[in-house]
Amino acid sequence: MSLGLIVVEVCERNLLASIPLEELEDQYPEIAVQRTPCLFMCHLCRAVPYAMVNSKRVYARTVNLCLHDIQEAAVKEINDFMGIK
């Protein structure tokens, strides 16, 4: 079970939903992944893989790049929370 300090939200219709994002919860106990039917960003959703990380948009041209950017954003949020620079 994750702590949920970092919430990663993904639209079920986005390309990013095709990969096992819940593995992030195994790697980082602070992360909680939430899949939702719609995040109401349809133009972005149709165009590129994207997710919301603590209410901030993270997107990239490919699923792998987006996953990498999500991990970077999550680690930054964790470090900010813990006061690590």
TrEMBL record:
<dbReference type="InterPro" id="IPR009910">
    <property type="entry name" value="DUF1450"/>
</dbReference>
<protein>
    <submittedName>
        <fullName>DUF1450 domain-containing protein</fullName>
    </submittedName>
</protein>
<dbReference type="Pfam" id="PF07293">
    <property type="entry name" value="DUF1450"/>
</dbReference>
